[in-house]
Design goal:
heterotrimer, A mainly alpha, B mainly alpha, C mainly alpha, A: mainly alpha, 78% helix, elongated, C: mainly alpha, 8 helices
């Protein structure tokens, strides 16, 4: 039972992570893929933050009369990672917009078909 | 269309200045409570985006034209590296704030405040720029 | 939170999916507060529930609202995901328990920061002093990433293609980025 409570946070993280993973590999819609990446990303954040927690500790802001603080280092890493994450997400979304422009669809299986057609057409014109 | 949303307009008019002040508070109070450049930049950009959503992006563009947001974007990073270079010129290592003032603690404080400001500027500049670009794209698409 | 994530997997309407993502990240923010990471929660709430939702909606407006068709759970990816998950859960059995003060992470530089930051750096918020002072290089890198991402978005969709002459402004930005 103790093992269950002690490791429950990791299991939640893994469940979330696998959902994100599934979205990335199984969905054909590019926006859904990006959403899946976000889910995955947040699960990693939760993992880091849960590592930094100390039982009985408090937020790492120095105050008189408090001895135990949670570990500040993961907080710093994740803090910056969140902002970087949203910036890279924006980049991914911009790429999606360009793909929509070029292929008029954002389903990657359709894009693959279109691309194959393009290649065959090129080969046809060359030979 | 604007008349129908009068409640939204009034409420957001009331809300936007406090949001911006709060962003500045978060920016400069980051040493003592939760907060700092990243959060402040995002909150500031959120206030701006709220303005753009309610009052139309054209008005927002008048407030923050493209050159301004792009300058913000670049100047934040420049400020950050600038602090590092200044520290180097004063004889310390890159980003070593101890050289910025005689007293160790006030030097650190100055350095942290400056680079947090740089972070905040870049982040808010980046978010606003990205938002405006997406909107500009939308408009270009509608014109077709 | 797991429920929202699961509905994200199944949901079909992209608009609703984006809203669910906002809820998901707000829940994550609440979770961070519970785990003492107030700074992180703050950022997550502002970024995840605010900015990224707006960006996603902007993209939806530019592309499409609906996923193509409802798909049943596809067996092969599902098998891969289950296998990976099982492996990871097996790996957690060796991990330190939640909140255990004896975990290796709490015996590295963490205690040093907590003890020394007040006398070496000053600000009572340890997160700030680590972020800006001890790990200044790191943060500089992160800021550069944000900057580069914004420049990248600018380069990708910044100009409508109908305008023929190249925009000199964005070129300048590219050069500046190289210098930085």
């Amino acid at each position: 039972m103790e093992t269950f409570y002690g490791l429950f946070n990791y299991w939640i993280v893994i469940v979330l992570m696998m959902m994100g993973f599934y979205m990335v590999i199984a969905q054909h819609n590019l926006i859904k893929k990006i959403i899946g990446l976000n889910v995955f990303q947040v699960s990693v954040f939760v993992f880091y933050i849960s590592m930094s927690k100390i039982k009985g500790g408090t937020a790492p802001i120095l105050t008189d009369g408090i001895e135990i603080y949670s570990n500040p280092l993961p907080h710093v890493l994740i803090l910056t990672a969140i902002v970087v994450g949203v910036a890279t997400t924006a980049l991914g979304l911009a790429l999606t917009v360009r793909i929509k422009d070029a292929f008029d669809t954002i389903e990657d299986d359709e894009i693959a078909i279109l691309e194959k057609e393009d290649q065959e057409r090129e080969r046809g014109t060359i030979s | 269309m604007l008349n129908r949303a009068s409640i939204l307009r009034v409420v957001s008019k009331l809300l936007i200045p406090p949001i911006m002040v709060f962003a500045l508070y978060v920016q400069f109070h980051g040493d003592f409570g939760p907060g700092g450049g990243f959060q402040a930049g995002v909150i500031f950009a959120a206030a701006f985006i709220l303005y753009a959503l309610i009052f139309g992006v054209d008005n927002a563009r008048k407030v923050a034209p493209a050159w301004l947001t792009r300058t913000l974007l670049a100047s934040g990073l420049l400020l950050y590296t600038g602090v590092g270079v200044v520290a180097m010129m004063l004889g310390g290592d890159f980003l070593d704030y101890s050289m910025l003032a005689t007293d160790q603690k006030s030097a650190q404080h100055l350095g942290i405040t400056l680079i947090e400001l740089g972070v905040g500027t870049t982040v808010s500049g980046a978010m606003i720029t990205i938002f405006l670009i997406f909107d500009g794209r939308l408009r270009a698409e509608k014109d077709d | 939170m797991a429920v929202t994530a699961f509905s994200l997997v199944r949901i079909h309407n992209l608009f609703a999916a984006v809203m669910m993502l906002g809820i998901y990240s707000l829940l994550a923010a609440v979770l961070y507060v519970v785990m003492d990471a107030v700074d992180v929660a703050f950022t997550e709430a502002a970024v995840g529930a605010g900015i990224s939702t707006v960006l996603m909606l902007g993209t939806l407006a530019l592309t499409t609202r609906m996923d193509k068709e409802a798909k049943p759970l596809v067996p092969v990816p599902l098998a891969i995901v289950t296998a990976t998950g099982a492996l990871l859960i097996y790996a957690t059995l060796d991990m330190p328990h939640y909140g255990d003060p004896g975990a290796p992470i709490h015996h590295h530089v963490g205690p040093y920061y907590i003890e020394k930051s007040a006398s070496e750096v000053g600000p009572p918020n340890i997160v700030t002093s680590v972020l800006a002072s001890y790990r200044g290089y790191d943060t500089l890198g992160e800021v550069t990433v944000v900057f580069t991402a914004a420049v990248g978005v600018m380069a990708l969709i910044g100009r409508s293609r109908r305008r023929k002459k190249p925009d000199p402004k964005s070129e300048n930005h590219g050069r500046k980025e190289q210098q930085a």
